[in-house]
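Worked example

This section walks through a single chain of length 161. The input is the sequence exactly as stored; nothing has been trimmed or padded.
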Amino acid sequence: MCKGLSSLPSSCLERAKGMRVKFSHLAETHHKHKVQDWRTPQDLETLLNHKGGQQAFHGFLRSEFSEENLEFWLACEDYEVSPCNLQKIKAGSIYSRFINPDAPKEVNLDAETRETLLSMIDSPYPEMFKAAQHTIYTLMAKDSFPRFLRSHPCIEAIRAF
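Given that input, the structure is written out below as tokens.
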């Protein structure tokens, strides 16, 4: 049977009051200044722009056996900023890891996109994967991200704050 708050040690009650004050201050700051933090993500982009958010989301995707989507998106981000002399190597790696129909972490792309990428693999350019990356981003934003927001890993990451 619940004895109420009076049964808790006063040190616990003081600590809880302190945490409540801190959280209410953070909520006010967030509301007034529209601070974007991955722990209160409004969209997938906010989450992906923070290393901690990426890690929490990756853990969630791994638990759902769909981490290849985030890994592909991150590989495309890395590819885009790679020096020209590394792009051909990285493009081949991305194709063989994520796009080839026999890829170990194949992402869900239509046949036309796959064929287009295969035709460009020998002459890569910085935005070569942009359309495919956008397709996977949209898939994560509409499917995985909303589930992540309701998931245990997301709730635990917020509590850890």
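What to look for: The domain at 44-160 is CATH 1.10.167.10 (Regulator of G-protein Signalling 4; domain 2).
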